[in-house]
Specification:
heterodimer; A: 13 helices; B: mainly alpha; 2 helices
Chain lengths: 385, 78
């Protein structure tokens, strides 16, 4: 077996590992509010989300080759750069998962590819205006748009049913929440599984195992593998992030959860239709904040400390993933060839296991995902109404 | 700077999502109100048909919006 085939095989395996982390990192996007309000039992929620992510991955392939396109020079991207970029993205996803911080997996992947590209070919390989228009500007607007729309949606939800008993409204809105959260899960599978398909396809084209050009086809095995990896990751459930999104930002009741998820689905789908690249994670986080503001009509209904920490994580995602990928790239250059790739792979696997073991000292599971301290619950507005 | 920010796209996303989300929330609210009033009137042995129709209308609008959302997801919107 020649070394280029081994490298492609490693890139494919690492891309699927990234897809898995993307899945469990983003389970919260669809199901955090559903779990928080008890609309679905936690384990059922993540399995449903996983199944819908799997189905969603087959619905559209239109962005499968666009990852990092316009951000780094396409002709400079090699399988080695993709590998180092994926290591950076996985590393950042695991670090933010450990701290329970919802951050964008897409931005982590883009940051990783940027870091690896800078190490390989210098700053000239990075398109600054592409980074600004495709990553930074959307990162600023995603939570703002979602927050504004969710605030109006939640306000309207409570206004419409103000003469309906709380018990009846909660019962009916829990069903609504299942529908709106399922739509977000489906949309997530459609959007995010394609990133991995794109990465694997690019690696196959780069290695000469697939013909490129404008009319290339994503192989069926790539679609099935990417869909399975993101579905499995989602079904495992990133409970630490689900707890943050569902319980630590604001107190969520069923009508509000329905308003938040409906808003997020509307923003995600309209941005996809218009072609404006918004981060699902940032949309959902902004939506949860907006739903709190719309329900309580008070700034004190949001735990701004938690939200501020999330914003800092968003700001650090691009440079953080780039730094990890850059270090991986430098190590590969220093060690050289297949040996360098192998050693970076071993270190990356060891680091991932280390983070997972560290997380087991204070595990968040389906059984305690909704448990937050009384102080944190009060900061999130619990008991305000 | 305007070339870096797709202002038109951003405003379109804001408008479409605002209308879409609030239409869905409002329609589901009609459904909830309709079901609630229907159950109340039935328990009082009165005619609850108008409320059942209200609930059905709300549900139909929700289903229509879901279909639009699904079409947007698979890129089949005109």
């Amino acid at each position: 077996m020649d070394s280029s085939l081994i490298l492609i095989a490693i890139v494919v395996a690492v891309a699927l590992a990234f897809d898995f982390t993307n899945g469990f990192h983003d389970t919260a996007n669809a199901m955090a509010t559903t779990v928080a309000t008890g609309a679905m039992p936690p384990r059922v929620a993540v399995i449903v989300a996983g199944a819908l992510n799997f189905v969603g991955a087959f619905l559209s392939l239109k962005v499968a080759a666009t990852i990092a396109s316009g951000i780094v020079s396409d002709n400079l991207v090699t399988p080695a750069i993709v590998f180092a970029g994926l290591v950076g993205a996985i590393g950042w996803n695991l670090i933010t998962w450990y701290f329970g911080l919802p951050s964008s997996s897409s931005h982590a992947l883009i940051g990783g590819v940027i870091g690896a590209t800078v190490v390989a070919v210098g700053l000239g390989g990075v398109n600054g205006s592409g980074v600004l228009s495709k990553v930074l500007v959307p990162a600023v607007f995603s939570p703002l748009v979602a927050c504004a729309v969710a605030a109006s949606g939640s306000y309207l939800a409570y206004r419409t049913v103000r003469r309906v008993s709380d018990e009846q409204a909660s019962r009916d809105y829990r069903w609504g929440q299942i529908g709106s959260a399922s739509l977000v899960a489906l949309a997530h599978g459609t959007n995010d599984a394609q990133k991995t398909m794109g990465v694997i396809t690019l690696a196959l084209i780069g290695g000469g195992y697939l013909s490129g050009g404008n009319n290339f086809q994503v192989p069926l095995w790539v679609i099935i593998c990417a869909a399975s990896a993101i579905a499995l990751g989602t079904a495992v459930g990133g409970w630490r992030i689900i707890r943050t999104m569902g319980n630590r930002i604001t107190d969520i009741a069923p009508p509000q959860g329905f308003g938040a998820e409906t808003t997020c689905a509307a923003v995600i789908l309209s941005s996809a239709a218009v072609g404006f690249p918004l981060s699902t994670t940032q949309v959902v986080a902004g939506g949860v904040v907006g739903s709190g503001l719309g329900r309580f009509k008070s700034l004190s209904s949001v735990n701004w400390g938690v939200f501020g920490t999330m914003v800092i994580a968003w700001l650090l995602t691009l440079p953080g993933a780039a730094l990890i990928a850059g270090i991986a790239g430098l190590a590969m250059v220093a060690l050289g060839g297949a040996g360098g790739v192998t050693i970076v792979l071993i270190v990356a696997v060891a680091g991932s296991i280390g983070i997972w073991l560290a997380a087991q000292r204070d595990p968040v599971t389906p059984d305690n995902v909704n448990d937050v301290s009384a102080e944190e619950a009060a900061l999130a507005g619990a008991g305000s109404v | 700077m305007s070339s870096l920010i797709d202002v038109q796209g951003l405003l379109l996303v804001l408008l479409v999502s605002f209308v879409g989300a609030n239409a869905m929330v409002g329609a589901f609210g009609l459904f909830v109100v309709g079901v609630s009033r229907f159950e109340e009137t039935r328990s009082m042995d009165k005619n609850g048909t108008p409320y059942a129709a209200l609930a059905a209308l709300g549900l139909l609008i929700c289903l229509a919006l879901l279909i639009v959302g699904f079409l947007a997801m698979i890129g089949k919107l005109p």
